[in-house]
Amino acid sequence: MSETCTTTLRLKNLGINTYKDAILYIRKDCNVCAAEGFEVQTRVRVNFKGRSLITTVQIIESDLLTYEEASLSTYAWSYLQAQEGEDLFIFHHKQLASLGFVRSKLYGHTLSQNEINEIIKDISKSRFSDINLSMFLAGCVGGRLNGEEIFYLTNAMLQSGSRLHWGSQVVVDKHCVGGLPGNRTTLIVIPIVAAFGLMIPKTSSRAITSPAGTADVMEVFAPVELDLKSMRRVVEKENGCIIWGGTVSLSPVDDVLISIERIMDLDSEGQMVASVLSKKIAAGSTNILIDIPLGPTAKVRSISMANLVKAHMEAISRKFGIETKVILSDGTQPIGQGIGPALEARDVLAVLSCDKNAPQDLREKALLLAGEIIEFSPTIQKGEGVKIAHHILESGQALQKFQNICLVQGGFSEIPKAHHTHEITAVSSGIVSNIDNRRLARLAKLTGAPHVKVAGLEILVKLDHFVERHQPLIILHANSLEQINYALSYYEIESDMIKITEMISR
């Protein structure tokens, strides 16, 4: 069916943020609803001064809009470069062929390269609703993507954004698949590797549903929203950078898929592989280190899934001519003490400063990862990397390099502190027998992290530690008592997120 204009409505900006979901807000008694019978969730195309976008209809049942007005979500408003008071044109749109491919996948059929390309193209042009995206992700979960499909998906996602070229024979990178609070090794690894002399341009993500992403933590120290020209300037001067990947448009489809995947709480190993590799290859990497934390409340929960992800990572990388090394690490409990941007930044700076009170698990893991990356250098023998990493850290070179990177990115700021803290103590004596990563991350988020940089929590115990009754387990950090109380109300329900097994005397 051809697209024909049905009506126009005058734009009013309501400022409703739906992340990257394109929403059209109209009243039920407006002309377009009366003429077309549009209901909630109807998909329509809108046009503003030559820019067009497929949107999902949502109905306003109040006086926020008149029957002559329409509004758009902030994402759609920005995409169309809309202007208040101007006319918005509303169109019917033809059914997307790619949705037929998605339905086919849900029924267990294998997708061709062309079909995957069409799906990713339509996602990149914001033609899929959240429901459509959920259908696609559901079709990919549970081992439903074979190796060939993962390769096609990786390539399609790679082609959807920009691709960087550095002119260096070896360009290294690291990535952790996630799910482990406080695991902020990147901010330690990058300066160690850059100080050694390897080029490591790191583009990182912000948190979507977690209490901190790498970019959120780095932003405590320095600006991370650099354009491509500024990114190149930092890398050329310091061998590395730590910036938010959203400003350089590397695999933008991945950001959309991740936002839905995390809400659905699905672990699609095929999507995970395509997500990681498309961004790393787009960033110009020739050698990649992948960290897979393995644990019952981490993102990867079984050894079988970890080995499957590892096999796919290595096989798909080879098809792109990339060397990828995958390591499995302990994901049974958080790394470091802080969970939340400023608190994780404090841990990072303590490690880089060789503070005797720095969290040793964060230090040792960062040194292990840095050593593995240093061994990508053709001049370094296996087993030498960790020793070199230790020397660079302990000599102060890593701290100096980190400060230099921050300064070139725009400044080196002091770590702020929260206005309020609150201790949560043990109700009984015993051994710490379980720590739930997911619920602990949720608790940190309820204090205001990551949007409030100082918010989050400190975890003061580790697995197998003996604790006394009334001993502090967690310190909550927030800028308001209301936020502290809000987090505490969750902890009262989920108080076994740190499980203490009482010792039975004989």
What does it look like?
The protein has 3 domains: 5-91, Barwin-like endoglucanases (Beta Barrel), CATH 2.40.40; 172-248 and 283-312 and 323-409, Nucleoside phosphorylase/phosphoribosyltransferase catalytic domain (Pyrimidine Nucleoside Phosphorylase, Chain A, domain 2, 3-Layer(aba) Sandwich); 420-501, Aldehyde Oxidoreductase, domain 3 (Alpha-Beta Complex), CATH 3.90.1170.30. The strands form 5 sheets. A 6-stranded mixed beta barrel has the order 1-5-2-4-3-6. A 4-stranded antiparallel sheet has the order 12-15-17-13. A 3-stranded parallel sheet has the order 7-10-11, sandwiched between helices. The radius of gyration is 24 Å and the shape is globular. The protein is α/β, with parallel strands linked by helices. The model is unreliable at 1-5 (pLDDT under 50). The termini are far apart. It has 18 helices and 18 strands.
Question: Which helices and strands occur, and which strands form pairs?
Answer:
Blueprint: E1 5-11, E2 23-27, H1 31-36, E3 43-48, E4 51-60, E5 69-72, H2 74-80, E6 87-91, H3 97-106, H4 113-124, H5 130-140, H6 147-159, E7 172-176, H7 186-196, E8 200-204, H8 214-221, H9 228-238, E9 240-244, H10 252-264, H11 269-282, E10 287-294, H12 303-319, E11 323-330, E12 338-339, H13 341-352, H14 360-374, H15 385-394, H16 397-409, E13 420-425, E14 430-435, H17 437-446, E15 456-459, E16 466-467, E17 472-478, H18 481-493, E18 498-501
Parallel strand pairs: 1-5, 2-4, 7-10, 8-9, 10-11
Antiparallel strand pairs: 1-6, 2-5, 3-4, 3-6, 12-15, 13-17, 14-16, 14-18, 15-17
Pfam family, one: Glycos_transf_3
Keywords: Glycosyltransferase, Transferase
Protein name: Putative thymidine phosphorylase
